[in-house]
Amino acid sequence: MRTIHERVMADARREGNPCIRCHSTGSTCGRHYNGQRQHAYGKGRGIKGHWIGIADLCKRCDQDFQEGSVEKNNYIGKDQYSEEFQHWCIMSNIRRDERGFFDGPS
Fold it and tell me: Which domain holds residue 80?
């Protein structure tokens, strides 16, 4: 039986799933939150954070949220960067919930 983390990651990659941020299709994958609060969500050295912090982002949008890329973006600072990434994680989970993802069999 797959874990919820594995199910969320597979759901993010399912065919036709658009990027939650720009709505493009074709390269969407589950991207783990890496903002200021990442360690509060279980992230550690070589350990991904909790599945609740996974956003369905395309490759282009994921590049905007790569660790160390804050300075090349239009963010005011780490707070705005972190808050926006959290927003897309929440929106991805709202979309999953609206599709009944959490109601189905594991």
Answer: 4-103
The total number of residues written for the chain in this structure: 106
pLDDT above 70: residue 67: no
pLDDT, tens only, 18-64: 999 999 998 999 999 888 888 888 888 888 888 999 999 999 899 88
Q: What is the mean pLDDT of the chain?
A: 85
Helix, strand, coil proportions of the chain in percent (round to 5)?
45, 10, 45
Q: What tokens appear for 14 in the block?
A: 């399912």
Q: How far apart are CA 72 and CA 20, in angstroms?
A: 21
Strands (E) across 1-106 are located at: 29-32, 54-57
Three-state DSSP at 11 gives helix
Contacts of 33 (CB under 8 A, 6+ apart): 41, 43, 49, 53, 54, 55, 85, 86, 89
Count up the domains in the chain and report the number.
Answer: 1
